[in-house]
Amino acid sequence: MEKLYLGLDVGSTTVKLVVLNKNLDILFSSYNRHFSDIKNSIKNLILEAYSKFKNAKISIMVTGSGGLAVNKWLDIPFIQEVVASTTAIKKFIPRTDVAIELGGEDAKITYFSGNVEQRMNSICAGGTGAFIDQMASLVQTDAQGLNELSNGYKAIYPIASRCGVFAKTDIQALINQGASREDIAASIFQSVVNQTITTLACGRPIKGNIAFLGGPLHFLSGLRDRFVETLGLKKDEIIFPENSQLFVSIGAAMSSKEEKEMSFSQLKDRLVELDKPIDMDVKRLRPLFIDKEELENFREEHKTHKLSRRDIKEFKGKCFLGVDAGSTTTKAVLIDEGNNILYSYYGNNKGKPLELVVKILKKIYSLLPEGAQIAYSCATGYGEELIKAALHLDVGEVETIAHYKAAQFFLPGVDFVLDIGGQDMKCMKIKDGVIDSILLNEACSSGCGSFIETFAHSLNMSVEDFTSEGLMAKNPVDLGSRCTVFMNSKVKQAQKEGATIGEIAAGLSYSVIKNAIQKVIKIRDPKELGEKIVVQGGTFYSDAILRSFELVSGRKAVRPDMPGLMGALGAALIAKEKYNEGMSSKLFDKDELDSFSYETKMRRCGGCGNNCLLTINVFSDGSRYTSGNRCEKGAGLNKDKKDIPNLYDYKYKRTFRYEPLKEEEAPRGTIGIPRVLNMYENYPFWFTFFNELGFRVVLSGQSTRKLYENGIGTIPSETVCYPAKLVHGHIEDLIGKGVKTIFYPSIFYEKKEQEGSNNHLNCPVVASYPEVVKHNIDDLKDNNITFISPFLSLDDKEGLKKRLEKELKILSIGKKEIDNAVDKAWEEKLIYKKDIREKGEEVLKYLKETGMKGIVLSGRPYHIDPEINHGIPNLINSLGMAVLTEDSVAHLGNVERPLRIVDQWTYHARLYSAASFVAKEKNVELVQLNSFGCGLDAVTTDQVQEILANYHKIYTVLKIDEVNNLGAVKIRLRSLKAALEERDKSGFEPVRVGEPKKRVIFTKDMREKHTILAPQMSPIHFQFLQEAMNSCGYKFEILPSVDKSAIDEGLKYVNNDACYPSIIVVGQFISALKSGKYDINNTSVLMTQTGGVCRASNYIGFLRKALKDAGFGNVPVISANAYGMESNPGFTYSMDMASKGVMAVLYGDLFMRVLYRVRPYEKIKGSANLLYEKWVERCMESLRTGNRDEFKKNVRGIVKDFDELEINNVKKPKIGIVGEILVKYHPTANNDIVDVLEKEGAEVVVPDLTDFLLYCAYNETFKYKYLSQKRLNKIIGDAAIIYVEFFRKELKHALNKSTRFSSPTTIKKLAKSVSPLISLGNQSGEGWLLTAEMVELMESGVKNIVCVQPFGCLPNHVTGKGMIKAIRGEYPKANIVPIDFDPGASEVNQLNRLKLMLSTAYDNLEEEEKVDKQENIEKLSSTS
Question: What is the pLDDT of residue 1419?
Answer without folding.
Answer: 77
